[in-house]
Amino acid sequence: MVAHPRFLFRLLLPILALTLLAAACGSDDDDAADASDSASASASASASASEPAEEDTTTTTEAMEESAYPLTLPQQLGELTLEEAPETLVALDLWSLDFLTELGIVPAESFTFSPAPGWLSGGAMDGVEPTTLEGDLSIEAVAAAQPDLILDVSGFFTAFAPETGQTLQGVAPTLSPPSDGLADTWKARFRHIGEALDRSEDVEGIIAETEAAIAAVGDTFPNIPGAAVTFARFNEAQGTIDIIIDDSDFTRAFMNDELGMVTPPAQIAAFDDGSIGEPFGGALNLSLEQLALVGEDAEAVLMFVAGNPETLTENSLWQSLDVVQDDKVIFLDLDTTLAVRTPSPRAINFLIEEVFPQLDAAIGGDGASAGAGEAANVLEAGAAGGSTLIGNFSSFSPDFQAAVTGPGPVTAFLPSDAGLTTADPAVVGALQSDFALLDIVLQYHAVPEALTAEEIIAAGSIPTLLGEDITVTVDGDVVILNDGQATVSAADLMAPNGIAHVIEGVLLPSAALEQLGLG
Fold this sequence. Notes:
Layout (H helix, E strand, L loop, with lengths): L1 E2 L23 H16 L28 E3 L6 E3 L6 E3 L2 H9 L6 E4 L18 E2 L3 E2 L1 H6 L4 E3 L10 H10 L2 E2 L10 H11 L3 H16 L1 H4 L8 E7 L4 E5 L5 H9 L6 H9 L4 E3 L2 E5 L4 H4 L4 E7 L3 H4 L2 H5 L1 H4 L3 E4 L1 H8 L3 H10 L1 H8 L14 H6 L14 H8 L4 E6 L1 H5 L3 H9 L1 H9 L2 E2 L5 H7 L1 E3 L5 E7 L2 E4 L4 E10 L2 E8 L4 H6 L4
Parallel strand pairs: 4-5, 4-8, 5-6, 8-9, 10-14, 14-15, 16-22
Antiparallel strand pairs: 1-7, 2-3, 10-11, 11-13, 12-13, 16-17, 18-19, 19-20, 20-21, 21-22
């Protein structure tokens, strides 16, 4: 087993230690190369270029007459030579997996640090779940797939862990970031994969379509271009906030250079003169006493919370900020954070549909909630009550996911983010590692009828999707489930397919209690 170092994107649910990247120089050159490449390629990209081409001999050398192979690619880990077209692929990161999905390719094995985000669905990976890592990568598991190409264009195991990268190269040719794991744009990484797989023409077509969607953002959401927007992460365990400042970091480059946003001027000044917070790479680490900088000169804030959101939202200084009082803060769940942090064609389309309406409304002065729209289902309704993380687990239980996102009627008891992060670590660890156990626990949180809090209290016992009942008691104003396993913190959150109730805690059926030794 090779331990993965504590770099960016260490997504260990439910604690969600998503570390903001330290920025590195060089993105200007990368972006210039992207612009040049795109300009030369877009003229030849057809409208149907996102469909896999029957034959494409585009390579990194000019005028190859037949096969693209053998080929040699420059990259951060050192030159990569492929003697023939790779057929068995292993993806070690979300970006690589996402780009392969865009090309209609299902790798023999794939690894991510959290369940695959919802925006990855609808493509080649439908019904194929990647292996969720919990901090370690097994070289033996990679080798067992017998790959002839390993992909790691995010650089988790190559750019940021060159010794691991060298070990992986001993297993099979390994694709690392094209030049800089911290600064390479999503387009540069996608093109790198396209070159390695002799699919450059397809890649250019997909990029052209995505660039067209980005170019139309200003027409649909006129408040976004030029707006000063903060991108931040609250670290509840450390009591700190990280904000990305410098657009040498690929997230800020995406927001600023592609979407037309700007970094709030006060944040740039603090970063440059060192007057507030601790700079690291292209980001700034703030204490809670310094969090006013998050809202200074900002027209909106995109905030990801790692931990209990109430630790932030109940902070008196936070509550005093103009951006908070004016409803200009958009709290991001894991899927949305990944979409901003690892932009790709699918992720960008997801942001345009799900986040930009709120962002445009917040910047325009209408408030972020004005752009949120009606919840599509009980899973989305639960997010309004503080349950944004449970959706990241739902794909591991097809019955639960079908119930909470389908036509209904359904009642969903959804653990709050705080409830997940404060649950018994042994229970949470077991649910993360045993997907069969997770499946039955999730089914125990859904009821195949729509019940209000009043109806739940009157019933006293409710049959769940799993077939085992949940018991309900009341102590004053507190609704208690299963003799104290959880309490209801937000009730009667309505959706077209049913009703969501957010709970503090995790409900465990008898089978789970027995397996966990808690029965």
